[in-house]
Amino acid sequence: MSAFDIYCELDGALDGSVSCDERMSRHATFHIGGPASLFIECASMADLTLVMSVLEKHSMPWSIIGKGSNLLISDAGCRSAIITLGKEFKKSAFVDTTLVAGAGIALSSIVQEAFKLGYSGFEFAVGIPGTLGGALFMNAGTRTEWVGSVVEAITLYSPEEGLVRRRGEEIPWSYRKSGIMRGEIILEAELSMKPGDIGSIRAKMEASLSRRKKSQPLSFPSAGSVFKNPPDESAGKLIESVGLKGYRCGGAQISEMHANFIVNTGNAKAQDVVDLIVLARNRVKEVYGIELQPEVQFLGF
Ligand SMILES: Cc1cc2nc3c(=O)[nH]c(=O)nc-3n(C[C@H](O)[C@H](O)[C@H](O)COP(=O)(O)OP(=O)(O)OC[C@H]3O[C@@H](n4cnc5c(N)ncnc54)[C@H](O)[C@@H]3O)c2cc1C
Fold first, then answer.
1. Model's pTM, two decimal places?
2. For 125, phi and psi rounded to 5 degrees?
3. Does any ligand 1 atom lie closer than 6 A to the CB of residue 33?
4. Does domain 3-87 fall into CATH 3.40.50.720?
């Protein structure tokens, strides 16, 4: 069964959309990546249920993505279906001080909503691109604050169990790790908001944004920090100290501003980025004996 046959089965049957040979560079903040056999936007739970049954019937592998802000997608693309969450998964509503938000919603919208209503607890997330689903999977945040700590519960789709609701405290959140398994799709989260002082919320958000502007190469396409910070160390400082700041491979460069960012200077290939990742890892291992662990997620390799 070819991807085109699956396309024909889904086309016209979804509220969302399906396409073949979709250029994945359009769906990743790195602006890198070859075509995906199928790209499917599920606009509703009914879409997702149909898509899952059709993909399973045809044994087509799949991956879920959000805004692609933590992804390196291979130059060859993905011989699989790439799923993303649309319309129904971009809604949110307050129930008292709990924000019930769809996983497809942009994290920035949640930050803004919380700020407007004077809720604190989400200021750390200002400036993190991506969706709520991606942020939950990655447990996105800073070194000291992360999204998992405000989660009351998550609803996810598991191919084996169907819809599952997990309470926040059952999930083993840790630095850039949620314990949510690959193959599970986060659909919705209940987030706890604390009433706060609007002046302090604004001050914390402004300080965080100004730190980002000063330290991150925001004018180039990237996927944010490439490596996780090792305990009590900074991946960026380690890479800088082995002399790799500004180093280039093809169109990719270890940022001159922040050595834990690799930037696409215009025409980078995924392979250029991989070469820099391997180089930085090996050099830091040789000099310090520390094995840097990638934070960026690889798709299609
Ligand atoms: C300029 C810049 C700055 C950044 N700053 C930060 C920062 O300060 N802190 C930080 O933690 N990150 C940061 N990031 C990285 C990135 O924005 C976060 O990891 C973000 O949460 C990823 O969300 P996304 O929707 O783009 O996910 P994607 O990149 O699309 O996916 C990331 C992972 O999440 C999985 N995923 C996505 N959606 C779902 C879902 N619904 N269910 C299950 N799994 C899912 C994907 O399969 C993939 O493995 C930065 C990135 C950039 C480009």
1. 0.97
2. -85, 0
3. no
4. no
